[in-house]
């Protein structure tokens, strides 16, 4: 009990005497926890809202029979409705309708109101006119019910008219009322199924049938039996499967963002480590005295850990509070989308997640405890008699020079890079990065010793003192190095990865946009298209020399995975690489009399997620049939994370009979300008202003803007990690300066000027940071290799070529070196501000 | 060599440490200043070194009036004309014994060859010729203080200021160190002010002064 009181007094005394240094540790942990918790809360709120929307759409269904976005024949409905196991079958049409002037589509659900009462009661609308007959008013062909979130988004109210684009035509719907049971952030519209089919040109097609089964029916067994009854490309899934599929949409993105958010916490852990090491070095005589007075090793270890724990507890608690406030503010002001584009249109509110709070609290506390453990253990193990001798701190730090543990960690990290993903997440890759980082940091004392011992001895006194300090006390110097290395290597790795990605996307866009002008029917949704007549008009438009039409739709290769894009476009049989950026071997395309099978080309994501390899046969659900096709090559695609399959437009039309297209690439006559052709096209296509027409440069520029926006959160989190790293540098130099106050005092006594001490410290800071930055660059490049070749392919299924952002890296490196030099001088000035006389008399 | 005239120093309005101190020291003279704790012995030493400024009065060292010098100039004066020995030794742990000793020569821009010779001679003089490449943590307390004395005298300063140089040493080592200190300053003709509580240390000086509230007064060590 007395011991505890003494420990508390000791702890409080240290915090009082060096509160700023403890505060930096607390702030670093708080920032790390806040970033992690905020990102988690935002993603959690968004994905919960998303799952809620999926559950809400499925209603009380036990099974959902789902086909492609194109839909499947409504003849399937009576087939299922008459199955003895089925109590109620509710057919559904799902449309992503393009709303003019809006960049996002509105999801419109077409339901059979009489069936929906049982299966999807949440989807039922309430008439705005209280006297109207709810059911029959709703059946009106122009009537649509909008959820409160959709009404707010579109700034409309019941009774207004909603314009939707179908093909190139604008159609008007009457807002009959609202959907009271729709989720708070859910933007949807509900119509009568027949009206939806008619108004959106989807006659005889449905996207879904929700089944309510009779009590006692074995759902799994019935699902298996249904597989034989369903048409090609249509599968039955349970609500659990649907939620899993919805979660899979954004899982890799969320996990990556959470890991990125934890980088700040990781750097914060190193900050605590360096401040604690230096604090222990500074107090070694005090601690030795406590041992002499009878404090046991175990008690001292507990005391030192208690210091780290106090920093961790305060930091983690502050971080949770801060994280919650940040999450609430972000959700309130800018919605749930953090740049990935998965949660557009979802406006959830923040909810305190106790389990996650506990986890992040533990992570914050753990980072502080791990940071404190090594110095605490070292202190407890040191002989008190030896501790009172000058130079002891360097001897104790010499233990850090042993390369074996560091090399072991690096070796294990390297080996983990060759292990595949776990549960489709690059867990071994992340662990490899962490081990490489820890191993490299542990190797720093040895590297510092090796490098600095080879420095020539300067003849000028200040440089001489600086170099001597680095040569003789490389252990202490390398503590400051660990913070620089951690923050700069992670920053460099992220910068290299993002630049590699950006340059690769830019090159890819160049490959994917060979035409001179591009046009698409609408910016969003799947209701806009160019009919066969429109295509003819485009071909005959003055100025258009040639046009390539492209049809994008979605197919389901695996009901448990998100849909795959099916892109139908003309592909030159002799040279498919002219339109697609292939990776690896490409088979000759086009069926021949000896080989009648159709060739398709899979994107990297499609190949990875669905096990497609070049030469492999794929059973492709297309139209209302399953078509055996051959995978002719794997191409690089940065636009569709869940995969895409390219098929020749002629093959697609032959198999589906679908003549509509969604995009057009045009080559122009030499004597006309793109602006003239754009005018001609708008005139020819009935003055349509909703189509998007752009030159490749604009498409490229817009795409890169979207790319940059999607990485804003990455840049932000990296900036936070760098700021924490700078805190680390400041805390480290501050701690070292404080520990060296007596040295400065003695130097001032023997005639070293303040300026010379300033030069000495600036030089020490510069040399040390330069070494840290160079080592950080090498380590950052290695980590970037893992990000580019392991983490990204395993998370997002896309590969890229490495590109170095030299300008950015050099700029940040120069800033860090300059900041370190200034910080070192300021820390020294602060340490020298205590009386020079007192410094040499101070036995502690 | 050293003249203090009407020197006063207080740390705040209520605590006056030194009051009207007058004192003159001839070149080559070795004086010990004793006194009770808190009388201002160390403050007096710091004032002589130009590390603190008096409230009033003047300090003239070798013709230089400290009151007329700025921080850089007093630093330069310390570098060239003064040497220091501290109670807690204050040798740099990351430098070897020879590197520690040669520091003042380096600061004074003495050429490397010449500095090496002077350092070797000084180390031989203090009996540490064989420990030139050792690190401070490998030395005993007495040896470490010898390094400090060697460092204080290697550049042949005009004035040596020693603040309790035997405070951290056992009696045997203390005697040995003080004997060495006296030999060295007498050989080099260095003026020395020793501040100490130890009568044995003070006994090595040419004369002993006692710091009292009345100022510095001559003191006899005889019982």
Would you kindly provide a written description of the structure presented here, covering whatever features stand out?
The complex is a heterodimer of chains A (about 850) and B (about 220). With about 850 residues, chain A is of the alpha+beta class. Chain A is about 55% helix and about 15% strand. Chain A is built from 28 helices and 22 strands. In chain A, strands 1, 3, 4, 5, 6, 7, 8, 9, 11 and 12 form a 10-stranded mixed β-sheet that branches. In chain A, strands 13, 14, 15, 16, 17, 18, 19, 20, 21 and 22 form a 10-stranded mixed β-sheet that branches. In chain A, strand 18 (about 615-620) and strand 19 (about 625-635) form a beta hairpin. In chain A, helix 18 runs antiparallel to helix 27 (about 805-835) and helix 24 (about 710-740) runs parallel beside helix 27. With about 220 residues, chain B is of the alpha/beta class. Chain B contains 7 helices and 10 strands. Chain B has helices spanning about 40-50, 70-80, 95-105, 110-125, 140-155, 170-190, 200, and strands spanning about 1-10, 15-25, 30-35, 55-60, 65, 80-85, 160-165, 190-195, 205-210, 215-220. In chain B, the strands form 2 sheets. Chain B has a 6-stranded mixed β-sheet with strand order 6-7-8-3-9-10. Chain B has a 4-stranded antiparallel β-sheet with strand order 2-1-4-5, with helices on one face. The longest helix of chain B has 18 residues, at about 170-190. Chain B starts with a strand and ends with a strand. The interface of A and B includes residues 461, 473 and 748 of A.
Strand order of the largest sheet of chain B: 6-7-8-3-9-10
Taking the sheet with the most strands of chain A, its summary is:
10 strands, mixed
Helix content of chain A: 55-70%
The mean pLDDT of chain B is: 88
The chain-level structural class of chain B is alpha/beta
> How many angstroms separate the termini of chain B?
31 Å
Low-pLDDT runs of 5+ residues of chain A are: none
Q: Would you identify the regions of chain B where 5 or more consecutive residues have pLDDT less than 50?
A: none
Give the overall shape of chain A. elongated
Number of strands of chain A: 22
Overall 3D shape of chain B: globular
- Radius of gyration of chain B, Cα only, in angstroms? 17 Å
Number of strands of chain B: 10
What is Rg of chain A?
A: 33 Å
Report the span from N to C terminus of chain A.
27 Å
Class by SSE composition of chain A: alpha+beta
In terms of DSSP E residues, the strand content of chain B is 25-35%
Can you count the helices of chain B? 7
Measured by residues with Cβ under 8 Å of the partner chain's Cβ, the largest interface is: A-B, 32 and 38 residues
